[in-house]
Each structure stands twice: as structure tokens, then as C-alpha cells.
Amino acid sequence: MGKTLLKLGIHSVRDFILYFPRAHEDRRTLPMIRELTLNKPTAFIGIVQSVTEERRKNNLHVINAIIQDAQGMVTAVWYNQKFLSKILIPGARLLLRGKLEQNSFTHQPHFICQDVESLLTAEDLRHSTRCIVPIYALTYGLYAAKMRQIAHSVLIPDYLRDFRDPLPESLKQQLSLMSFQDALYQMHFPSSPERGIHARQRLVFDELFVFQLALAQKRFEHHQQPTRFQLQGEGPFTRAYLQNLPYTLTLAQQRVIQEIARNVGDAHAMNRLLQGDVGSGKTDVALMALLMAVQSQKKGALLAPTQILAEQHYAKCMQRLQPLGIPIHLLTGASRSRERKEIHAALSSDIPMIIIGTHALLEEPVKIPNLAVAVIDEQHRFGVLQRSTLRQKEYHPHCLFMTATPIPRSFLLTAFGDLDKSILDEMPPGRHPINTLYAKPKYQEAVWQHCEKRLQKGEQLFVVYPLIEESRTLDLSSALEGQAQLQQRFPNYQIGLIHGRMKASEKTDIMTRFREKKCHVLVATTVIEVGIDIPNATMMVIMDAERFGLSQLHQLRGRIGRGKVASVCTLIATPKNENARKRIAAMLETTDGFRLSEIDLKIRGPGDVLGTRQAGLPEFKLADLVEDAAILKVARKAAFHLIKYDPTLQNTAHIGLKHMLIRSHGWGLTQRLD
């Protein structure tokens, strides 16, 4: 039995107690066979009277068993579960879970069995009925009744006393939380559904609370780190930049710039996340932050995840900042050797400047003395180590992390809980909302006809495909094949192609041609998902749109709608499951990225939205960022309040929390907390 438990990661009594059930089933009262209701999931107990097996066509194996109790009899049916033959023997007492259905041929009711438990002893019967029963995830050779028997043997006071309650008594009373030992027991064997809910809430609170404590302590530590750079939030360059703009910044942009100005003028380094939907004006905010460094006689750096985006930022900087006489450099993987040496030499000088680059900025030879402001664009595309490498180029520069990927609030409070946050929740005036349409593949020609009319007016078109080349395993159109077909459909127009396998120089060349209107239709994969800014591109058609995630669809759609002409995005799709239909419906419902991020979280769950590992989220044992959002808010408020008054957890009432924090988040915390 011990080896079997090892397969579940259970090495000790402590491990077993923390191996929580995946669900519970209320078996306090079970129906008799004559009380079973058609098409209603239920469970009942009966004795096997007889068993027959048959093999039907298509290799379908069927077991039929006559099950009887004191008041009735029913035929139970199992499909393709031949391994059950050894427990389905006459005289065996079973608990069956499933649904009573009417046989389509005989019109007689039969019980389609989804799960069966063998009740061999009186102890099995006592642990499996007349109570709320834990349902555990099992492995081969371990049965439900045996698992519950073990649970009863370890969930006793002698073992539960080993679990000391880490929460201060005052906090438990304030939040009306169940005791830790009681919660552990009730999590396995709740005396009532309400007690089971309260037990889970207590344990979920602990998980979220200890993680928020780590974030609060990390944030406290960061705010204690001095920076060499106390910058001018307002000065000649920032004033000149605003005066030269052909438009007025939104109130949201002005608010965020003021927040950044206060940060960079402080004695402690800024550590701020800027979240703004596509087209909300993050670039203006980023340039203002960089100018705060330059006008203070320091350097500013902007790190972009792709060469295309870095080059686009560089072009904007040259256009908007060159009149101010500020040196601006671009360093990417495509920079030539001679050019690199010149840039390295310039960066090592004391001349105030702005450097824009890709991962090339992180390479060891690159030295950036007096780096006062570091802006990381689309920060979720960089790993934690890459972000910290840029920060280590100078002693605690002010850091602004930007993302156009809307992040659900629960993620903001976890993955980015140690950062100050700014949100651009207002779009610049004059931007037309993008009209989003949905069409089945059979109506493609009507879509192309509409596009052709707009191409004739000089507008441009993106056509996005999920694959580069035709796949034998996926029935999807490919970008290569699509380019050829579109060239036939639009013989009078230049059809370009861009995808991730191209060399950086090839991507730059095709984007330049598209920007200069030498190319009218650009066939693309998701390489255009981030940062591409072509105001004349007013149309987008996304092929096989059901294959894309909701965040991807929103980011792709954000590549259009950047000019003075109303734009339209058409989703060509054949959604074959409920989640795909929900994604398409959400895209048609709203262009609000924040609203879409919450819908995406509900559809996909927290593990997939940003990528758990990349986002910095732990793998919680019980907590769910959708279901437990309310508990998360309470846990965060309590954790940050506690760290404010006891940042290193020295109070004797917090010793249990300190040990829990060290155990949960590794030895890195011991140096800070001891």
C-alpha cells in the first residue's frame, strides 16, 4: 500500500492529511432502487444478483448486472470496463454512481454506471454512507473505500496536533476563520456542507495570504532600496515634448505621467507596471519617462521583445525626439559589428541619451553607466531573469514595465502584486471603434468583395493565418497557401508575407514596404500580434479564428483602427466546441481588453491565461483565482497591513507565519526574515 501511495506523492502522514479530496458527495441519505429518478445523477447501494457480458460490433464490451436492494431491482450497465469483472460477482455489495436512463430498444429503465465502489466490510459501509464522503484522486491498485479508511486512521487528534495554526488569534477572530486543525479535518470529512465550505475558505485564505505576505515583504524590501537617481519629473525636455505633440494627452496619460514623475523624484527606485489596452497611448508615457532621465543628465533604455517592435519604437523616438537634440541609439541582434562597437562606446560615455533595443541590450559586453530609467515593453514576453539583468546594468534604475495584454485583476494582485500599478483606462479622442464581424468559410467571397472595395480606395489589409505551412494533421489554411490564393483573387495588388521563420532583415523589409504602401495586402501569422502600427491598414481578416486564444485575437485586432478611417475585423471561423464559440462571441461583444481578459480567465482558467510559470504564479493546492477572487482581496489587504507594521515578522504572534513563509517560498526568504 505504501508504494501505491507514493504514486500520489504521499510519503508521510502529513502528506496524506494535506492530500485533499477533489470533491465531496453527500451520502447522508441514499435512495432505494424504486426511488431512482430518470436522468438524475445519483448513487445507491445494492447486491449483485447476476452478471452477463457481451461483445458487440465495433469491439464494444458491455457488462450487464442485475442489482437488488430490499425494495427493488434494476439492470446496471458498464461499457468497455472489462476490468470490473473481478468485483462484479453475485453477492457483492456495491455502491453505484450514475444515472437511470430508458433503454431506447426495450424502453425499460437501466442504470448507466459511471463509478462503482465495493463495500466488502461493515467498516467500508460505515465510511462510505450516512455521511458526506470525500472523493479522492486515485491510482491503479487504490480503491475509494480503502482511501477513506486510511483517511479516518490518520485524521485523529494525535496527528492533527502536529499542525500548528500559523495565523495570529486576532486575525482569525477578525475574519471569523475556522481553526487550522478543524479546517484540515472538515476538509476531508465535513460534518455539513456549510462546514466543508468554511474549511475550504480557511485553507484557501492561508494559501493566498502567505503568497501575499511574500509579495508584501518583497515590495517593502524594494522600497527600502535607495537609488542614485532622483530625477526631474518636469523639465525642459518633457515640456518641449508635450508642446510639440499635435494632440493633447488623455487625462489617463496625464495621471500616469504624474505618478511616474513622483516615483522618479523619490529616493527609492520606481517599480511600476503600466497596463494599457492597444492604442491607449503607452508610447507617449514611456517617452516621457525616458525624457525624465535625459533631462536629469542620465540615460534611459527601452527594451522591446522583437526587432520589429524595437525598430518601430526607434522610428517614433527619432521622429518625436530628434528635434530636441537627444542622442538616440538602436541595438538589436541585427546590428552590424562596427555599429555595435560604436554604440557600446557611446553607451559607456557620460553623455545623456536614449538606447532602444531587444535582448541584445542584455548581453554581457553592454555596459550602461548612469542608466536611470529602464522601460520594458510587453514585459510578459521576457523571463524574470531577463528583466532583472537589465536592472542590474545599473544600481537600481527606475523601472517601468509595460503591457498591452490586459491582465485580469486577480492576476494583477498575484503575479504583479509587488509592483505599483498604473492603468490607461481611456482611449485617445478621434479613434474609431473597430467593427468586428463573424463569417463562416462558405461566405469568404463576400468578405473579399468588401475588402476589394476598400483596397480600391487605397486602404490596406491584414490577413492572418494560424500556420505558416499546410499541416497534414490540422485542417487549417496556411499562410503560404493563403498568399498564393490571395494573389490570384487580387491580381492587381501586391500581396506580402511575414512570419516568424523569416530573418529579421526580411521582416523589416516587408514591414517597410507595407508601411510605404508598396504592398497592399499583408498575409501574416501571429508575428504581427504585438506593436505593429500601420495607420492605413483598416481591414483585418483572421482565418480559422477559432484556433486563436481570446487574448491573441484581441491583440491582432489592435493592429488596425489606428488611423482616421473606421476599421473592420472579420473572423472567419468554424467553432466546434463551446469554448471556441464563447471566444468568438466575446470578440463580437466588446473591444474592451480588460473585459475580454476577465472573460478569458473564466473560459480557460488561471493556469493558461498568461502561463503560470511565466506569470510568476504558484501552483496553488486549493485556491482558484476565479472562484476565490473575494478571498484573494481579503488576504491581500490583511497581508499588506501586517507587513506594514511588522515587515520582518519579528512579533512572537507571527512566528508561525514566518516559518510558513520560509517553508512555502524557499530559503531565499530566510535571509530577509531572520
What can you tell me about this protein's structure?
- The protein has 674 residues and is α/β, with parallel strands linked by helices.
- Among the domains are: 23-135, Nucleic acid-binding proteins (OB fold (Dihydrolipoamide Acetyltransferase, E2P), Beta Barrel); 236-424, P-loop containing nucleotide triphosphate hydrolases (Rossmann fold), CATH 3.40.50.300; 435-590, Rossmann fold (3-Layer(aba) Sandwich).
- It is 39% helix and 19% strand.
- It has a 7-stranded parallel sheet, with helices on both faces. Strands 15-20-19-16-18-17 form a 6-stranded parallel sheet, sandwiched between helices.
- It starts with a helix and ends with a helix.
In DSSP terms (H or I, runs of 4 or more residues), the helix count works out at 26
Our estimate of the beta-strand percent is 15-25%
* Full CATH superfamily name of the domain at 236-424: P-loop containing nucleotide triphosphate hydrolases
The share of residues in helices is 25-40%
CATH second-level architecture of the domain at 236-424: 3-Layer(aba) Sandwich
Shape: globular
Rg from Cα: 31 Å
Structural class, judged by helices and strands? alpha/beta
Give me the oligomer status.
Answer: single chain
Low-pLDDT parts are 382-387, 611-615, 666-674
Number of beta-strand segments: 20
Main beta sheet: strand number and arrangement?
A: 7 strands, parallel
Provide the CATH top-level class of the domain at 236-424. Answer: Alpha Beta
